[in-house]
Structures are given as structure tokens and as C-alpha cells.
Amino acid sequence: MRSLFRHLLGNPNSQDDPAMPSAPAAGQVYSFRTRPYSAFAPPETHRHAAFKIIGVSDGHIAVAVLDGIWPDAPGPRDVRSASQLHEHRFFHSGRPAIFGVNRGFWQPETDLESLRYVGTLSVTAAERLHADAIARLAAGTRLARLTFANYAAEGEWRWSNDREALVAEHGRQEARNAAERAAKEERYRTRLRKLTWEQLLSETPFERWSPSPPFPPEALTQAARGVIRDACIALRDLGPKPRRSQVRAILKRTVQWFNEADAQADGAIETEEREDICAVLEEMAYVARQQALVDEIDEWREW
Predict the structure, then answer these.
(1) Residue 30 to residue 65: CA distance in whole angstroms
(2) 146 is in which domain, residue-wise?
(3) Predicted confidence (pLDDT) per residue in 159-215, tens digit
(4) Same domain flag for 232 and 138
(5) What is the pLDDT of residue 167?
(6) I need a surface site. Which of 8, 86, 98, 211 has the fewest CB within 10 A?
(7) Residues 37 and 144 both lie in one domain
(8) For the segment 102-155, what is each residue's pLDDT rounded down to a tens digit?
């Protein structure tokens, strides 16, 4: 039977590490040591997993996580016999662990522990379809940092082999997250009660957007700060009791700018950026005495 491997350095049975490729390409397989699934898990997993690149486009790298878990870094024989991982933990219902990584955020040796290149496998027709969907940003496709491969592999192993402890850890993590959100919301409410245009204009929006990556390109960050500043000045100049239609027009124009900037940056606005943008827009609506407009922001944004 013809081997699924198109290329491996040396003997297919050898455990010697092939040279790390200089660029991602379809079919490449990499192994990594898994990190703990949560802050409440033991600090060392003593497990290794692997992923396969199933497609590369101008904007994204499509990745499929393999279903093997090994006590040591897997070799060619190991990954050759592995299948595609399907997710069942918590709310998942068996979807394949396939996702896209923005090219600008492709940092495999930073995002994963003990990364090793294993070799190159053929890409199946089904995998090519997934990769094409990611390249087109089709509905239902997922974009994430490469760290998602770790949580998919480690999480599924724990779900199958250590579920009771995983569920308990998840509950502790949810409780911690809820407490942090409540504290943050209280601080935010206190801030809104005292917030003024002068204070907003004295602050630097999106101050945590550094470095890039993982955050957006510096040029986008600087432009976004200018857009927010200009919008604050425009809203301030409407006076202490502006009409809702005037405030809506400025806020909507600002959101549309972010829509265009995100499209031009190939989807650089992700979860953290989205939270920061929505927070500052909410503050602007609040200081303009038009808090009701906050609910409309989601209707305007495309990120």
C-alpha cells in the first residue's frame, strides 16, 4: 500500500527530528507537549499531541488537530496512524477540531510547547474542503490562535480519561471568572458615574494592544486611537445635551471605520480587541448621555 507520507527525512521508522520547515505548507505535521487545560490542573501533563496543516492561503493557515496522545514526542509511524480529532467535551457534539490561524498570528513555537516537525502527510479531499472554507471565511468556520490545538487535544484526552476532575476544575474556573467579571463590572460602573470628555481625551485607548502580534498591526492601533479621539471631540462639541440622532451618527461612523479596518487587516479584531472597542464606545455613549445606543452597536459591527 502506498504510504500516506509524501516526504520524511531519513528512514520512516526513525525518531530523528527532521529539519524545521522555513514556512508552513499543506500536509506538514507537528507535535507538541500539551500544557495544562486550566489553572487548576496539575502543572505538568506528561502528554504530547500533534496537528496537521491542511491548507495555506494568503490570509490563513488551516489546521486539523490529530486524535493521538503520546507519552513522548510522536514519530512518523505514530502520526501516520492517527485520525482527525473530534470534540466532545462539555458542550461540543463531535465537530472536527479544525480551525484557521491568521497568518499574522502564526507563531507555532511561541504558542505551543516543545514544537517538533514530524513530516508531511497527504491532504485528503475532505480536508481541502475545510481549508477552502477557512480561506473564504465561510459561515461556521473557526479562527483562533494556535494555542487552540493544545486545548482541543488536552481537553479531549481529559474528557475521555479524567472527566470528573476536569469538570470540577471547570467549575472552579467558572467561579473565578464570574468573580473577576463582577469586580470588573463594579469598577466599570464606578468609572462611568464620574467619566467626562476631558478624562476620555486624556487617556490612551487600546493601551494594551501591544505587541503585534498577537494584537493588531501598530499602524491599525495608532489609526484606531486617532479615530476614537476624533469621535470624542465631535461628541463633546455637540454640547451637554446632544440629540440621539447626532450621537448615533458619530458612533455608527466610528463602528463602520472599524469594520473597514478589520476587513483590510484580514480579521485582526478578535475577542480582546472587540471587548476593548465595545467598552470605549459604551463609555462614549454614556458620557454623551445616550446610553440606549449601546444596544445598537452590535447591529452595526462586523467584527
Answers:
(1) 10
(2) 5-161
(3) 999 999 999 999 999 999 999 989 988 988 899 989 999 999 999 999 999 888 788
(4) no
(5) 97
(6) 211
(7) yes
(8) 998 899 999 999 999 999 999 999 999 999 999 999 999 999 999 999 999 999
- Is 230 domain-assigned? yes
Q: Is 46 left (phi over 0), alpha (psi -120 to 50) or beta?
A: left
Whether residues 206 and 289 share a domain: the answer is yes
Are 212 and 155 contained in the same domain?
A: no
Q: What gap in Å lies between CA 250 and CA 230, rounded to an integer?
A: 10
Q: pLDDT digits over 235-285, tens only?
A: 999 999 999 999 999 999 999 999 999 989 888 898 899 999 999 999 999
What confidence score (pLDDT) does residue 121 get?
96
Does pLDDT of 3 surpass 90? no
Residue 125 lies in a domain: yes
Q: How many domains does the chain have?
A: 2
Q: How are beta strands 98-102 and 113-121 bridged, if at all?
A: unpaired
Alpha carbon distances (Å) from 223 to 42, 205, 237 = 43, 11, 21
The cell for 31 is 507535535
27 lies in the same domain as 122: yes
- How far apart CA 60 and CA 143 sit, in angstroms, is 9
Same domain, 60 and 107: yes
Element (H, E) at 27: none
Domain limit, last residue, from 118, 135, 161:
161
Using only the alpha carbons of the chain, give its radius of gyration. 23
Cα-Cα-Cα-Cα dihedral sign, residues 212, 218, 220, 221: positive
On the CB side of 160, how many CA atoms lie within 13 Å of its CA? 12
Residue 159's contacts (CB-CB under 8 Å, 6 or more residues apart) are 88, 89, 90, 166
Beta partners for 64? 52, 98
Number of H helices, E strands in the chain: 10, 6
**Residue 108 domain-assigned (yes or no):** yes
List the one residue out of 138, 137, 131 whose CA is nearest residue 96: 131
Q: Is the pTM of this model over 0.85?
A: no
Same domain, 59 and 152: yes
